[in-house]
Amino acid sequence: MTSSTSQDLYSTPDESTSENKAIDLRSDTVTRPGSGMYDAIMSAPVGDDVYGEDETVNALEATAASLLGKEAGLFLSSGTQSNLVALLTHCGRGDEYIVGDRYHIYTSEAGGASVLGGLSCCLLATDNHGGLQPDQVIASIREDDPHHAISRLLCLENTIHGRVQTPEQISTLAEAVKSHGLSIHLDGARLMNAAVTLGVPAAILVASVDTVSLCLSKGLGAPVGTVLCGPADFIRRARRARKLLGGGMRQAGILAACGLYALEHNIERLAEDHANARLLADGLSNIDSLRVTSETNMVYIEPAVDAHAELRVRLAGQGILVGPEKPAIRMVTHLDIGRSDIERVIDTIIKLYSTLRS
Predict the structure, then answer these.
(1) Number of structural domains, the chain?
(2) Residue 5 host element (H or E)
């Protein structure tokens, strides 16, 4: 799918080519369905998914599981719900999960594991690339002692703020914790970005983990949904947790159709987002006093402290929306962003930043 087709059902006749078109770089969650995805919705066979009778949901779950090399899949409304269902299925009340301090399960999911699952969290500092070290993880595993919570699960993520974790990094951690009886869940919110960057099948990336959440609504461009994949018996138990959380949906095939379309059409095209991110980073890298870093579909710029807020405000005034993060501002490329948009962003930032620093 190209950026133009993703706009055609929403744009005014001139919006997609206008210099005043809004360019939303806040996240790849802002993508909108295009005509192909809408066609998939209209033709999707549906049934009652709680009864297991929605053909399109069943097809999506089987497709995602096969793509990730797992036995079964479960369609959920969001990555947050998928991760929480995984935690509730892996762990019992009073158990502990180990997680990196920058991973979304800890930072961005409203403390659901503690609030709803009664789980303890062992928080570990991640390195500059978002990773954890085996010795660090092993040292955090609790001894079998009645004073301690029971260490049950290691939670990983890929990518982490755009940074790729390699199969070797993941498998090394997996080998270390499995020898101590722990399971591993991986938050794959942007897993396909990692797979495309590395040029390896996603199944290889997650071969050593027990369960994985594959988000459909970020770079893959579906409006809603995540598929939790893992062993068949685990997924059977996860259905109970999904029901507990109010996640049982009925004719969910109209949403699952978008996910199927995304898996069939929008994985390889992630390379376009990565190329646009590299173009953006290269275009901004020569600006004095502006630190620029980039990997996969994310670009971070770190302006001078006194220019940070004003730069964001002035960009918004030019129709360019960027993230609120500090000290580095995040910009995320996605299927609704084309090369001409990137060129406009580069030109605008160069002009604005020079006036802010003059």
Answers:
(1) 2
(2) helix 3-7
Query: Between the CA of residue 257 and those of 1, 7, 51, 135, 225, what are the distances in Å?
Result: 15, 19, 18, 43, 11
Instruction: Match 């800890």 to its residue by tokens.
Output: 106
Measuring CA to CA, which residue among 40, 28, 94, 52 is closest to residue 242?
52
User: Which phi and psi angles does 290 have, rounded to 5°?
Assistant: -110, 110
Please give the structure tokens belonging to residue 355: 């006036």
Give the single-character DSSP code of 339. H
CA distance 69 to 65: 6
- Beta strands 72-76 and 320-321, pairing class: unpaired
Domain that holds residue 159: 36-265
- Model pLDDT for residues 140-168, shown as the tens digit of each residue: 999 989 999 999 999 999 999 999 999 99
Tens-digit pLDDT profile for residues 13-42? 333 444 668 999 999 999 999 999 999 999
DSSP codes of every residue in 199-253: TS-HHHHTTT-SEEEEESSSTT--SS-EEEEE-HHHHHHHHHHHHHTT---SSTH
The answer to pTM > 0.90 is yes
Question: Residues 298, 339: one domain?
Answer: yes
What is the separation of C-alpha 296 from the centre of its chain, rounded to a whole number of angstroms?
12
Domain finish residue from 265, 285, 314: 265
